[in-house]
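Notes taken during the Thursday session

The instructor put the following on the board and asked us to keep it in front of us for the whole hour. The protein is TerC family protein. We were told not to look anything up and to reason only from what is written here. First, the residues (262 in total):
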Amino acid sequence: MLDFLLTSDAIMALLTLTFLEIILGIDNIVFISIAANKLPENQRSKATNIGLLLAMLQRIILLFFVSFLIGLKEPFYTIDTSWLHIGISWQAIILFAGGLFLIYKSTSEIREKVETPEHDEDKIKGAKIKSLSQAITQILIIDFIFSIDSILTAVGMTNGLHENHNYNLVLMIIAVIISIAVMIGFANPIRKFIDTHPSIQILGLAFLILIGFMLITEAAHLSHTSFFGKTVGAIPKGYLYFAIAFSLFVEFLNYKAIKKKK
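Then, after some discussion, the predicted structure tokens were revealed:
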């Protein structure tokens, strides 16, 4: 296990995934803060911390469930015609549906952030919260909504890294624990940074579109899909790491240029 976690692929996946989890978790923190701020001041930090810890447990449970489904690799139905071959398994269905969901969700989120940035905040502000238990319940509901794309991102970044699926699961759990710990410890500084540089969050959502596309191609590859005799190959994760690193480098150059101009 330790040998796997110290490999370059595992370290790159962990760093990239933790970064994406934190960036995607900013909206989660904002909405959790709105829910907690409806309580008396002495209960707000308690509600936020308890809510985030329970959210972490919720995500880990969901990771186990999704990982179990992805572990079902054997095809239960095969489409075999003169021009198309697909071995449909639960693994392929989860990856394909997850890829479509990430592309749809990311595109919708980017549109919302550009067109109506206050829409989701207004909905949460309208919710009635009178007690600590109600606030924690609201936080768990909010986190469940945000967990779906977070978990699919984790699956996309780690799937296929190791033959033993449990090793990939451990990597995902470590990334979730680190990201939640960072959110608890540095929520306000990170939120202020994102508020000052909103393009970082848009960039994070754009990365999800890449991961969504990779999940779809991986589903096709793992189900041995072939069109007119041409099989679908796997996309090496190194390409994804390069795209993310290059985009962040360009964003850093833009940040330095704007700072210099000011």
